[in-house]
Design goal:
478 residues; Alpha-Beta Plaits; 2 domains; 6-stranded mixed β-sheet; binds the ligand CCCCCCCC/C=C\CCCCCCCC(=O)N[C@@H](CCCCN)C(=O)O; binds zinc ion
Length: 478
């Protein structure tokens, strides 16, 4: 399986080796990026000073990118960046690399070092954005900078889109870039974004880490539940207050998980590809899912992360009520964040939620919703998927399995379905469960060595994408 060379294949790729000085520069540049607090607080509420500073910062640390004649740079939606890298062969369909420069807030509490310090400790750079997602922003531009310094000229054109509001919707960044490219008539061969990793230790009986390339992502429904009651004196309370009614409603939602959808969606493909990697007897079980699916489906529910793969999840994330200790509360509101399994729709989940609550004193307000994403191809003919696979095999030769999977979070790539059917979410980094807890959590960090490897991966990927051939079906055709 893979990509077939032709006479046009670049004779000798530029080796992905970096000098000691370059390696120091690249890690210092990442630290500088972490120190700029580009926080998204809520839709439309960003640290605009930091976003503007970030724009100046990338000019400073990647001067060659900005002065190269075949690269066009545009600022979109005030703070997002779009780079158009013109390849020498217009017959090759362009692709796009995505990343986002905004981060979620990070209060200091619980961090070993301040979250916007970018401090290095024991070989790790700490800070908000080191995994989500300034690592990708900086690694993409760093790899391009290093290629340009080595006089690289791409054959296949590509775009780099860096959104500034991914963490709150992408409405001002990714959506505008997508509309701009659509207006220019651009169609893309594929997109590569954040959203998955080389996963290590997420499934107990799996012997080795494997690379999961997410070919779909879950949808979402932000639902606000509201109960109104006439306020009054707390000395003569009604049998139920708005708070009590609402608490019972959200408790019912928490206690009644959405149906287990194991068997539909990309997870089946993931497990089939992994089957032989499990130790005995799990390998027998995963090789015979037709027989053991009830058992596997129950096993998947046990851990939070694997549970998120088999169903629409329900997270009560906000609860507001009450105005004074001796006043019966007039209104109580709770917000529930559902992450929708690819085999369900927003409308189905809304109906299920209402059927669980069954209380007409509770009003439902849909704040925002997004359908799950279609499944991108991962077969032998899928150029983007095969290029990712090829580059993983080169940069991580110890990884035996590259499997398609699903992203349990949302990414900016969801705004680009108008431009391509090939959307792949993969960050070339090892991720363990404790690293996952750092994403949106505390002590988010990346090892210096992992960041260098990410730069190396993109450095090779950009060159691999210059291939002019289509993927081939069978190895024996090589
Ligand atoms: C058998 C396979 C086991 C798989 C285990 C999966 C482990 C999880 C791996 C990776 C998931 C990390 C995803 C990182 C991307 C985070 C993107 C993000 O934070 N997006 C936000 C966007 C919010 C937009 C506003 N609604 C989000 O989803 O909240
Ligand atoms: Zn992200
Ligand atoms: Zn995030």
């Amino acid at each position: 399986k893979g990509l077939r060379d032709t006479e046009h294949q670049r004779a000798s790729p530029i080796p992905s080796q970096f000098s000691q000085e370059e390696r120091v520069t690249m890690k210092e540049s990442l630290k500088g990026a972490i120190q700029i607090p580009t926080v998204s607080f809520s839709p439309g509420e960003f640290n605009t000073t930091a976003l503007a500073e970030f724009g100046e910062y990338i000019h400073k640390v990647f001067p060659t990118v900005f002065r190269t004649s075949f690269i066009q740079h545009e600022v979109v939606g005030e703070y997002s960046h779009l780079f158009t890298v013109q390849g020498s062969d217009p017959s090759l369909q362009p692709y796009m690399l995505l990343a986002h420069i905004d981060v979620v807030p990070a209060p200091d509490q619980g961090w070993e070092v301040p979250p916007f310090s970018g401090l290095e400790r024991d070989g790790f750079i700490y800070g908000r954005g080191t995994l989500d997602n300034k690592n990708s922003v900086m690694a993409i531009l760093q790899a391009l900078e290093l290629l340009l310094i080595r006089n690289y000229i791409p054959r296949r054109s590509f775009f780099i889109a860096l959104g500034h509001d991914e963490e709150v919707s992408g409405a001002h960044g990714a959506q505008k870039i997508s509309a701009l490219l659509q207006a220019r008539g651009v169609q893309l061969a594929f997109i590569v974004d954040e959203g998955s990793f080389i996963l290590d230790g997420f499934i107990p009986s799996l012997k080795k880490p494997f690379a999961m390339v997410s070919v779909s992502e879950k949808g979402s429904l932000d639902l606000m539940l509201e109960v109104n009651k006439t306020p009054g004196h707390s000395s003569a309370p009604p049998k139920e207050t708005s708070i009590g009614i609402l608490a019972a409603a959200v408790s019912r939602l928490e206690q009644t998980p959405m149906p287990n959808m194991f068997g539909s969606g990309p997870l089946k493909m993931t497990l089939q590809q992994l089957a032989n990697e499990f130790s005995f007897p799990a390998n027998v079980i995963f090789n015979n899912l037709w027989l053991f699916w009830p058992l596997v489906s129950r096993l998947m529910e046990r851990e939070d992360i694997t549970n998120a793969l088999v169903r629409t999840t329900t997270a009560v994330t906000m609860f507001n009520a009450g105005i004074k200790v001796n006043v019966i509360p007039p209104v109580a509101q709770a917000t529930v964040n559902f992450r929708i399994h690819p085999a369900q729709t927003v409308q189905e989940v809304l109906k299920l939620a209402k059927d669980i609550v069954v209380d007409d004193r509770v009003q439902f307000h849909v704040l925002e919703s997004f359908e799950p994403l279609p499944v991108s191809p991962s077969d032998d003919q899928a150029l983007g998927y095969q290029l990712i696979r090829q580059t993983i095999q080169s940069v991580f030769p110890e990884i035996n399995i590259v499997a398609p999977g699903i992203c349990i979070a949302q990414t900016d790539s969801r705004h680009y379905t108008n431009l391509t059917t090939g959307i792949y979410r993969f960050n070339p980094l090892y991720l363990q469960p404790q690293d996952f807890r750092g994403i949106h959590g505390i002590n988010e960090r990346i090892s210096v060595q992992a960041y260098e490897t990410q730069v190396k991966f993109i450095f090779e990927f950009i060159q691999n994408a210059d291939t002019e051939q289509r993927p081939v079906s069978h190895l024996h055709e090589l």
